[in-house]
Amino acid sequence: MTVVFCGLLIALTAKPAYAQSVEAFYKSHPITMLVGSGAGGGYDVYARTFARFWSNHIPGRPDIIAKDMPAAAGLAAASTLYANAARDGSVIGAFTNGAAMDPLFGNPGAHFDVLKFNWLGSIGKLENVCATWHTSPVKTIAQARERQVIVAAAGATSNTAIVPNMLNTLIGTKFKVISGYDPGSGLTLAVESGEAEGICGLSWSTMKASRPRWISEHLLNVIVQMGLKKLAELPDVPSALDLVSDPQNKRVMELILMRQEAGRPFAAPPDTPPDRVAALRQAFDATLADPAFVAEAGKTRLEIDPLTGQEIATMLAKAYAAPKPIVARAAALVEPNVK
Asked: In whole numbers, what is the pLDDT of the chain averaged over residues?
């Protein structure tokens, strides 16, 4: 009888985690942040830097502990967050830009429903460009339509392979893609050494941060930019979208470019309590306006061009509602080995 009474007393007095206030919960629960890249990579640096300041704006000021999960090109982090992570707000994910679109395009490693994630925000968009080395005779995108241009690429499904192949198909360029280079120094060394004439599909913000000399010393011919909107820094560089005349081809390109628009997105698992999602989103937006974070981002050359969690969710809903023929054509360019 005593045991039953004690058990009943505990049941009545115990406070479920979900019944706690947001501040009370985070005072006693650190946040594990699953990062879909390797240690020291661009996504990892952005996520860890942001997390140091984000914690200050979350009620209860929890520690945010990063756990790198680069497997499956970052998709392991998204799959784990979706299927195995606690759904109480104590686990979040910092994804690569393409992860949210990979299920749509049939990537076999994408085991999650992106429309069920609670999107928290993105630090910055990824605006890719195509550029040739200053010694190349190809100085414009028009010239790349007239003669073959050898470009270095990482894997067959990396942006550096997808973008030139997409341009070849949709606007008639003649990029010859040589894949297999290390996605970091391998690509840049290939261009500097003359093995390749350029790179097509490299993030402009990454290039500025990792190779500022290329920009300041005018060592690149930036011949086209890949984004839903043009970069203010490159007003004279044509947008690939403006070069597509066929309406259906334009829709295919827009769908592919949405992969990079999400930039560096953060999400919480499905079914995370709404008050905690709201608090994380509010703290995310507050961090982006935090003068200390803005100063740190400027010092470390982190590009800030944010999206709110709701903006990411709206964009993805639009992408996943695209007509099947458009999705199929885009998927054939993004995931060429998937049948």
From this structure: 89
- List the CATH code of the domain at 23-125+262-334: 3.40.190.150
Q: Which amino acid is at 165?
A: N
Q: Which residues contact 98 (CB under 8 A, 6 or more apart)?
A: 159, 259, 260, 334
**307, β-bridge pairs:** 122
- Identify which of 226, 105, 229 has the alpha carbon closest to the alpha carbon of residue 157: 105
Closest C-alpha among 60, 132, 75 to residue 106 = 75
Give the homologous superfamily in CATH for domain 128-258.
Periplasmic binding protein-like II (3.40.190.10)
- Which helix (H) or strand (E) covers residue 5, if one does? helix 2-13
One-letter amino acid identity for 291? P
The domain spans of the chain are: 23-125+262-334, 128-258
Q: E strands, 53-182, where? A: 64-68, 91-94, 118-122, 128-133, 149-152, 175-178
Upper half-sphere CA count for residue 153 (Cβ side, 13 Å): 22
- The H or E element containing residue 206 is helix 204-210
Q: Where are the beta strands (DSSP E) in the chain?
A: 31-35, 64-68, 91-94, 118-122, 128-133, 149-152, 175-178, 198-203, 220-226, 265-268, 307-308
CA distance 159 to 129: 10
pLDDT, residue 338, reads 67
pLDDT tens digit sequence for 233-255: 899 999 999 999 999 999 999 99
